[in-house]
């Protein structure tokens, strides 16, 4: 349940502070961050998974790479695997994650990963999280980003990582 979700707090260097924050509490501690993750899933034919946010979520019906918040006590890799499974039904192995880097927003860090899945896996979408999903080329991902069809805060957070993300997606597609 999202209301009970708690996050470990990090300092400006990204180190754990030993503090936690309950999602939705009104006062955000100054100088503190929480960790979020996003995982760019690449199918064996080189296509990339995009999910469309549910109509009831913030930034409704915009496209994104699966991801979300790291819960208290979780590692970023554990959260990346959990978020992809919860949103799409895909089961990833932590060892399959390739870390791209870390973006920064006003009160959060975003760790971005790439993972490759074999074949054409069946998706089981969580309707509370995901309205629909599609497999697209990397060029289509960039087109949706450039057309404003992805949440602006995430686009800004991804911006410094985008060239490396594109490179790692290309490597994953060639390996697949």
Order of strands across the biggest sheet?
Answer: 6-3-8-7
* Cα-atom radius of gyration: 16 Å
H/E element sequence: EEEEEEHEEEHHH
| Structural class by helix and strand composition | alpha+beta
Instruction: Note poorly predicted spans.
Output: none
By DSSP, the count of extended strands is 9
Please state the average pLDDT score. 93
Organism: Oerskovia jenensis
GO molecular function: isopentenyl-diphosphate delta-isomerase activity
EC number: 5.3.3.2
InterPro entries: Nudix_hydrolase, NUDIX_hydrolase-like_dom_sf, NUDIX_hydrolase_CS, NUDIX_hydrolase_dom
Keywords, please?
176 residues; alpha+beta; four-stranded mixed sheet; three-stranded antiparallel sheet
Question: How would you portray this structure in words?
Answer:
- Strand 7 (98-104) and strand 8 form a beta hairpin.
- The model has no long low-confidence stretch (mean pLDDT 93).
- Helix content is 24%, strand content 32%.
- The strands form three sheets. It has a four-stranded mixed sheet with strand order 6-3-8-7. It has a three-stranded antiparallel sheet with strand order 5-4-9, covered by helices on one side.
- The chain is globular and about 45 Å long.
- It is α+β, with helices and mostly antiparallel strands.
- The chain has helices spanning 76-88, 138-146, 152-158, 162-175; strands at residues 6-10, 16-22, 34-43, 48-53, 63-64, 67-69, 98-104, 108-117, 130-136.
- The protein starts with 5 loop residues before the first strand and ends with a helix.
- The chain is built from four helices and nine strands, in the order E-E-E-E-E-E-H-E-E-E-H-H-H.
- Its EC number is 5.3.3.2.
- Its cofactor is Mg(2+).
- It comes from Oerskovia jenensis.
